[in-house]
Specification:
single chain, 281 residues, mainly alpha, two-stranded antiparallel ribbon, two-stranded antiparallel sheet, 11 helices
Length: 281
């Protein structure tokens, strides 16, 4: 299985096609032992076929650094693209996809002795989190969350999550934050409504209902998810405040903050929606 999402792979292949000629792509295909498998009628067709090969097979290829998956070879080549290509839609989509997959791009300054055959700065992929920690595969989280939202017919929340991920992939951080907060608000209210609450609950009313009114409680006071005392620290309302203290229109934001919001939203949503799905069965 490819370690990277299709969004990341597609962006990387498109970026590779943007700064590579037909002859360069052909040379890569021979080097990677996939020559003859990509169409040659256009560069876009070639990189589309390359993306399909990675998606379906992600073969191991021989490189100067040893045997490596094709996906990583392509990504390392694209994150070290010429400087003038390190902007624009394809680059933003690549960076956003990597962030979503739990990776970031790190600068590695080459020693003076090596600079005659290497560029002064090389870019490398780094994991945000240790790769053996469970429950941190955000693509898996996204798939499971989408599956539960579809099964429960939480259409409004599903729409907000899709828009959030689409905005994130385009580098529209403020818009993504807004949709993430609306998603977080929305699915908890849809859970509360399914469990018997009325419509149009305010956020705190929703949390109180899920923690106190339903039996057994959906939000656990023992875990600090909800507290009867409004002055006590509580995870759910605290997270909502962190999503933004000024409502669902957060104004200016940046990539790191938006990535944090996306990741913590997906982790929390998977926990709570899985709990709801198991409660319903």
């Amino acid at each position: 299985m490819c370690s990277f999402s299709l969004m990341t792979i597609t962006a990387a292949c498109n970026l590779l096609g943007a700064f590579s000629s037909h002859s360069e792509l052909e040379s890569y295909e021979i080097e990677w032992d996939i020559d003859g498998r990509c169409r040659t009628n256009s560069i876009q067709a070639r990189v589309n076929d390359l993306a399909r090969i990675i998606r379906d097979e992600d073969p191991i290829v021989l490189t100067e650094g040893g045997r490596v998956k094709l996906s990583k070879v392509v990504l390392l080549k694209t994150i070290n693209c010429p400087e003038r290509y390190r902007s624009g839609a394809a680059w933003l989509k690549l960076v956003a996809g990597l962030e979503f997959d739990g990776f970031y791009i790190s600068e590695n300054f080459v020693s003076p002795e090596e600079q005659w055959w290497h560029r002064e700065v090389q870019y490398e992929l780094r994991r945000m989190y240790p790769n053996d920690i469970p429950e941190l595969d955000f693509r898996e989280a996204e798939t499971e969350i989408f599956s539960i939202l579809n099964a429960e017919n939480f259409a409004t929340s599903l729409g907000h999550l899709r828009q959030a991920i689409n905005c994130f992939s385009r580098g529209e951080w403020a818009a993504a934050n807004s949709q993430l907060r609306s998603f977080f608000e929305g699915y908890l209210k849809e859970v509360a409504h399914t469990l018997g609450s009325g419509n149009n609950l305010q956020n705190n009313q929703c949390y109180n209902y899920l923690g106190r009114e339903v039996n057994p409680p959906f939000l656990f006071e023992s875990l600090g998810e909800w507290k009867q005392s409004p002055n006590s620290p509580q995870f759910i309302s605290g997270l909502m405040s962190r999503m933004h203290s000024e409502g669902s229109h957060p104004g200016l934001s940046d990539k790191d903050d938006c990535t944090f919001r996306l990741h913590i939203t997906l982790i929390t949503a998977r926990l709570l929606l899985r709990r709801f799905s198991e409660r319903e069965t």
